[in-house]
């Protein structure tokens, strides 16, 4: 769900906080943080000051299929 959310909201990610994403996806902030960390380690995303940047859109799309 998170990957789909990130792609659908890619243009607004610089204005959406991680807290808001957790609320939108109805997940605990700690759970979201753990998944974001895994995605960052995989170099699919980067996080800075609580904001998310997609680094590898093609790989994210492959993960969805």
From TrEMBL:
Q: Could you provide one GO biological process annotation from this protein's UniProt record?
A: regulation of DNA-templated transcription
Matching entries from Gene3D superfamilies are given as: Winged helix-like DNA-binding domain superfamily/Winged helix DNA-binding domain
Q: Which InterPro entries match?
A: HTH_CRP, WH-like_DNA-bd_sf, WH_DNA-bd_sf
Identify the stretch annotated as signal peptide in this record. Answer: none
Q: Which Pfam family, giving just one, matches this sequence?
A: HTH_Crp_2
Q: Which Gene Ontology MF annotations are present?
A: DNA binding
Q: What is this protein called in UniProt?
A: Nitrosative stress-sensitive transcriptional regulator NssR
Source organism per entry reads Campylobacter jejuni
């Amino acid at each position: 769900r998170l990957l789909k959310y990130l792609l659908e909201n890619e243009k607004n990610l610089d204005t959406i906080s991680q807290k808001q994403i957790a609320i939108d996806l109805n997940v605990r902030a700690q759970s979201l943080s753990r998944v974001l960390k895994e995605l960052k380690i995989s170099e699919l995303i980067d996080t800075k000051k609580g904001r998310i940047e997609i680094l590898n859109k093609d790989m994210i799309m492959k993960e969805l299929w």
